[in-house]
Backbone:
């Protein structure tokens, strides 16, 4: 299926050269001295006092050249391995909600470690999700070590590839934890089961923690989506083109640091650029501007032959309602049509990214199922063109009992799992339930039934120990 | 050598898989092993079809497969029928079922699927096609004296014709000599009741069940 494009070749060229100009003329702040030194040695104009680095075009181009065109992002189980390269689109959840619309009580409450575990377990079972992120911040563990607890909960509850967010924590502890699962950190090179989502600070700042963690992941050769999230109108220009240029400058300068740190660092290009909503001051997730910028950014990433990262499947609505489903469906559809390799936030958020909902995960599984079906394209062959059976049935006949029908209908047709297509009487007989009720029942049913393949007991024990040790060390140094 | 239970299982499996060829050969095997033909149908072929109906109801099988299973059942019954007649045995709850789509409605497929399932269940189905005027239904009913008349209508505009046919039967004095079943996309149980039909068939699995109930089977 064709990929949607919103930029002409000339547009791509102008955005690229504009991006190079921003980095050369304005530069970026890099709040991490070792990264600043690397940039200095490589030929950037560095002011160590202001921490500003003006990066010449050749460094940006060289970093793109050094980046892998294809990245393996592995699952604990090989059957979930993802290959990030042109034409392969994957869906996963998101990160950072502080509350959850509880699927049992229908009340919004602070999210906990158990919610992270449940979301991971649900995502493990729902077949249209390809990778797992924490969705929630656990409010019941010390905030300094929350990302470790999140990863701890996820690793125990899914075999799919895991993408984490550092939230200021030293990423080396996260890498160590993932290493336990594959029998040692050294094995992560071959089985990279952990990726990181990391945001620079807009406009044009590579913060201390983000830069350190970017460098840790670059060294470990683990996938890293270095993804900026400015709001057009406040932390990026109000023009869509200007917001794209700045976003591109922020992510590509991150890649310069990554490749200077370690050649072949597994950098993933993209942005989470929305708008500053002038009426409310919020950063909306269902914004069509974001959908638009997603498509443009994916197009740029493809132009560079880099794996790409995108966003879709969340909503600004406060409850599960019509707005939730149309915002989720539209953002997912455009993100998928952009051809991006990793689409995150699928089924993750309500309420401007603040509140999660397990039922939304279940609903988005169905939306993604339809999208994947369409993206698969039409199989054209002598047999599928069906001339023989068309002739055999002829005018007035029907295809119901043809062996051709039996052979192909299951393979060629899409089968719903949440969508209702019953005749009205049957729908009434089954309780006249709307999609939200059906999704809730499916969520409950899966959570009751699904047991992810457990980690070996020795690994689980080791994982608990690594978590405990890191927690003790971090908390004692914080006090 | 296949045991009796093997043969019954093979009959059921052939229907579940929609394999007419296997249904015929298993039926022939049943005859050769001197199985009761009625039992071969009820505990073999029909058991398979009941399983298909159950799987259809819970969304595991689809109409295309249902029809092929119906055809397999029919193929198997055809092999067993001469022996059934020779032993003067009858399938309980079956009879002649006259079926057609009402005047002004050209929709054929739903009605044909129901016909196929009724045939599979042992009814002698007389399908007189689509766009059938009221009078033709009445005349044909007089001629072949079916136990049940089935009226199919897909559209809200044509379902009114189901009512007309029932009235025509009343006027001709033949209404009480048969049962009337209605079905089709816009037909509801309430509608069936309102126009004085005896039963409503929701789909191709439900219709044979309702038909059997009407005949006390």
Residues:
């Amino acid at each position: 299926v064709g990929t949607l494009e919103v930029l002409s070749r000339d547009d791509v060229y102008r955005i690229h050269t504009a991006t190079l100009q921003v980095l050369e003329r304005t530069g970026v702040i890099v709040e991490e001295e070792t990264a600043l030194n690397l940039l200095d040695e490589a030929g950037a104009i560095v002011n160590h006092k202001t921490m500003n680095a003006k990066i010449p075009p050749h460094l940006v181009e060289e970093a793109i050249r050094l980046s892998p065109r294809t990245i393996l992002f592995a699952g604990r189980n090989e059957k979930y391995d993802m290959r990030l390269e042109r034409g392969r689109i994957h869906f996963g959840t998101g990160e950072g909600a502080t509350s959850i619309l509880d699927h049992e009580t229908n009340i919004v409450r602070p999210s906990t470690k158990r919610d992270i575990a449940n979301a991971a377990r649900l995502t493990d079972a729902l077949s249209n999700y390809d990778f797992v992120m924490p969705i929630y911040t656990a409010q019941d563990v010390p905030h300094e070590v929350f990302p470790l607890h999140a990863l701890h909960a996820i690793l125990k509850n899914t075999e799919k590839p895991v993408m984490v967010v550092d939230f200021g924590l030293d990423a080396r502890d996260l890498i160590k934890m993932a290493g336990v699962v594959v029998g040692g950190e050294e094995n992560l090179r071959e089985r990279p089961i952990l990726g990181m989502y990391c945001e620079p600070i807009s406009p044009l700042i590579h913060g201390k923690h983000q830069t350190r963690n970017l460098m840790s992941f670059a060294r470990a050769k683990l996938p890293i989506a270095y993804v900026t999230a400015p709001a057009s109108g406040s932390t990026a220009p109000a023009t869509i083109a200007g917001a794209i240029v700045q976003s591109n400058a922020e992510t590509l300068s991150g890649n310069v640091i990554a490749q200077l740190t370690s050649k072949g660092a597994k950098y993933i290009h993209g942005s989470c650029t929305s708008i500053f909503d002038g009426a409310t001051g919020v950063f909306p997730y269902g914004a069509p501007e974001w959908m638009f910028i997603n498509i443009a950014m994916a197009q740029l990433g493809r132009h560079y032959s880099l794996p790409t990262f995108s966003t879709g499947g969340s909503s600004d609505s406060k409850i599960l309602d019509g707005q939730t489903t149309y915002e989720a469906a539209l953002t997912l559809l455009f993100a998928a049509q952009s051809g991006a390799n990793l689409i995150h936030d699928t089924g993750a958020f309500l309420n401007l990214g603040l509140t999660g909902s397990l039922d939304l995960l279940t609903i988005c599984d169905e939306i993604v199922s339809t999208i994947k079906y369409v993206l698969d394209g039409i199989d054209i062959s002598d047999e599928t063109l069906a001339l023989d059976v068309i002739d055999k049935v002829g005018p007035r006949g029907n295809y119901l009992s043809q062996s051709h029908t039996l052979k192909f209908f299951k393979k060629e047709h899409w089968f719903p799992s949440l969508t209702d297509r019953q005749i009205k009487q049957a729908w009434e007989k089954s309780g006249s339930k709307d999609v939200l009720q059906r999704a809730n029942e499916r969520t409950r049913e899966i959570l009751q039934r699904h047991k992810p393949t457990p980690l070996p007991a020795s690994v689980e024990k080791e994982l608990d120990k690594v978590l405990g040790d890191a927690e003790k060390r971090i908390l004692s140094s914080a006090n | 050598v296949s045991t009796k239970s093997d043969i019954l299982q093979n009959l059921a499996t052939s229907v579940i898989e929609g394999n007419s060829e296997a249904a015929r050969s298993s039926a022939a095997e049943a005859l050769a092993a001197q199985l009761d033909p009625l039992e071969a149908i009820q505990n073999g072929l029909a058991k398979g079809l009941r399983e298909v109906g159950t799987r259809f109801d819970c969304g595991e099988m689809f109409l295309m497969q249902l029809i092929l299973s119906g055809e397999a059942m029919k193929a198997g019954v055809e092999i067993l029928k001469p022996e059934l007649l020779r032993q003067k045995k009858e399938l309980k709850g079956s009879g002649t079922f006259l079926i057609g789509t009402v005047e002004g409605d050209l929709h054929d497929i739903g009605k044909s699927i129901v016909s196929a399932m009724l045939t599979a269940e042992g009814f002698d189905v007389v399908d007189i096609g689509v766009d059938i005027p009221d009078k033709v239904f009445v005349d044909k009913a007089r001629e072949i004296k079916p136990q049940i008349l089935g009226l199919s209508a897909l559209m809200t505009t044509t379902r009114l014709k189901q009512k007309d046919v029932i009235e025509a039967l009343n006027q001709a004095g033949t209404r009480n000599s048969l049962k009337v079943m209605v079905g089709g996309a816009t037909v509801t149980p309430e509608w069936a009741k309102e126009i004085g039909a005896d039963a409503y068939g929701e789909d191709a699995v439900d219709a044979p069940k309702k038909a059997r109930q009407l005949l006390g089977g």
